[in-house]
């Protein structure tokens, strides 16, 4: 399957039962809601997916199950976030064997690699697989920035095709597009810059609150790309208080609470994460309640 690297791509949460096993039944409910809303791909194993807490077998099971659920309608993308080059190559191999169609790759975990080491890491993994790759650039959370010069070296690998832009610098969309044109697709990775990035030319949106509000997220993207900017802005203004739940250390707990409110998820997280407590829980629930009670009526957006 060809990856177009455009549209809305949810970084989905992993669903757990109350006794800490994979909840594949609720997981399917959510994935089907994403497909119905018109997302372009499903991304597994990111921060929202609590990937660092998943076993090797659980990751395989999630890929296989997602491939079954989407049934060829959209591609499944697996995030690769490993501490060693060897483990990253192994993860890419397993992803391909289990039916994933692309990779999203972070720089090496824990070790703060320099520019040369980071480029070598990405290139080595890219050269080990035929799967197309989206580089995840998030120096705010992971401490390593993939610069324009580094990207210039990385695109020597034909299967490095896109970048998830999460520097929080909206001008980076323009910088990347100006330098690389269509050779490198740009997907925004920050929910609170979603519409702004699309209007500045981003090809897609790797989204978080889409996990709870798939239709609204896709509608914003489609309307913006169709030039119906005022309609997109109107929905986005409603959405912003919810989107701000994504730029928070407890984004997983926040978004899972939102999924509960919209009927397509559960609150269960895996330790060391714990459900929100006290005043913070009340604050988040208030935002979610207000958002759900005022959900906008969406225009027909799917065929835009």
Automatic annotation (TrEMBL):
InterPro entries documented for this protein: Aldolase_TIM, DapA-like
Superkingdom of the organism of origin: Bacteria
A Pfam family per the record: DHDPS
Keyword Lyase recorded: yes
The UniProt record lists the keyword Hydrolase: no
Alphabetic keyword roster: Lyase
SUPFAM superfamilies: Aldolase (SSF51569)
GO MF annotation list: 4-hydroxy-tetrahydrodipicolinate synthase activity; 5-dehydro-4-deoxyglucarate dehydratase activity; N-acetylneuraminate lyase activity
Enzyme Commission code: 4.1.3.3, 4.2.1.41, 4.3.3.7
Family the entry assigns: Belongs to the DapA family.
Protein name per UniProt: Dihydrodipicolinate synthase family protein
Native source organism of the sequence: Croceitalea rosinachiae
């Amino acid at each position: 399957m060809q990856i177009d690297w455009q549209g809305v791509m949810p970084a989905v949460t992993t669903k757990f039962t109350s006794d800490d096993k994979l909840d594949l039944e609720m997981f399917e409910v959510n994935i089907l809601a994403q497909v119905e809303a018109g997302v372009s791909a499903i991304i597994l194993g990111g921060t929202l997916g609590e990937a660092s807490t998943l076993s090797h077998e659980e990751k395989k099971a999630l890929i296989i199950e997602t491939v079954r659920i989407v049934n060829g309608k959209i591609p499944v993308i697996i995030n690769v976030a490993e501490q060693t080059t060897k483990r990253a190559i192994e993860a890419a191999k397993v992803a391909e064997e289990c039916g994933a169609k692309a990779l999203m790759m972070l720089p090496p975990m824990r070790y703060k690699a320099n520019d040369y080491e980071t480029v070598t890491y990405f290139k080595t993994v890219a050269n080990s697989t035929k799967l197309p790759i989206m580089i995840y650039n998030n120096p705010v959370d992971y401490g390593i920035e993939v610069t324009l010069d580094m990207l210039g070296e990385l695109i020597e690998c034909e299967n490095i095709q896109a970048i998830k832009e999460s520097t929080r610098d909206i001008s980076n969309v323009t910088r990347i597009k100006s330098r690389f044109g269509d050779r490198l697709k740009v997907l925004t990775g920050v929910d609170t810059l979603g519409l702004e990035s699309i209007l500045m030319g981003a090809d897609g949106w790797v989204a978080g609150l889409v996990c709870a509000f798939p239709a609204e997220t896709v509608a914003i993207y489609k309307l913006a790309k169709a030039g119906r900017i005022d309609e997109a802005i109107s929905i986005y203004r409603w959405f912003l208080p919810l989107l701000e739940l994504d730029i928070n250390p407890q984004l997983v707990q926040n978004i899972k609470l939102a999924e509960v409110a919209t009927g397509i998820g559960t609150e269960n997280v895996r330790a060391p994460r714990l459900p929100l407590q006290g005043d913070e829980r009340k604050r988040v629930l208030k935002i979610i309640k207000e958002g759900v009670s005022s959900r906008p009526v969406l225009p027909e957006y799917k065929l835009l």
